Amino acid sequence: MLNKIYDKIKKIIKENFWYLVIFFTIVIFFGMPLPYYIDAPGGLIDVSERLEIEDGYPINGSLNLAYISEFKANIPTLLYAMLNKDWEIVKKEEVVADNETIEENDYRNHLLLEEANQNAIMVAFDKANLDYEVKNRKVNIIYIYEESDTNLKIGDQIIEVNGVKINSKEEALNEISKTDTVKFKVINDGIIYERYANKVMIDGNKLIGVMVCETKEVVSSKEVNINFKKSESGPSGGFMMALSIYDYLTVEDLTKGLKIVGTGTIDEFGNVGVIGGVSYKIKAAVKEKADIFFVPTENYEEAKNTVLEDNLDIKLVEVSHIDDAINYLNGL
To answer: Most CB atoms closer than 10 Å: which of 57, 138, 210, 318?
Structure first.
């Protein structure tokens, strides 16, 4: 019986040998895992597709988030990236750190998105002089540098720093700055732990070597719903989200019928922060025929060089605070 099965398999392989060789060659060619990612110009997300605001005023133009496309490299995409100046080959450790799992990376980026969205609501309602209340602030550990000397864990929520009760990220950072050895009380999965962190030199600065973010519940006088897809994460859309919410809350339409794109983080005071991949985002905006691109001050030189070198037809506007964008659009 076994001999007959063996002979049958052998016959099939012999009759289809070259088909099988081609099949497995294609599988290896396209499916072999490589320690690289590819960054490329992505596209735009019209904020109206992610945002619902109670009694919001109409917008004639559009306000858009710019994003990059990032995907795991295979042999064909790696070869194409070598020939295409708009595609960049990125080492895996630059996307996911050696001391961080993909799940931890996703956790970090989704919490950063949540923080950005809540900051955006606060900033927009502040600028529109409308009421809101902030509840349930939580300061979370979302990344730990390899160089750090600490037993803090990703997912820890900070309760106390050096015996001082913590109610915000600002308070936590202020207390951390006071001593070289920092004692923490944290909660993780419902269990309270005592932790420590000793400051070390990282990139020329004395730090405890962790990244924190603050999540909170913002209860506003007009209901705001922000709906991102599960695949969308990170803080770089915060500034444009704040600008868009503000425009929906105010009678005068900032857009003047224009297609406006931008990028940048936002803190709860309205400051616009640096992001990655600005060149790809500008190229995505140009591809979608945008009129204006708002870029953070720290990214402006790179953005300007991209526009000049590639002779791109788009108006570049530098912003360090949301007021810069509002004042510019009001002046059109």
So the answer is: 210
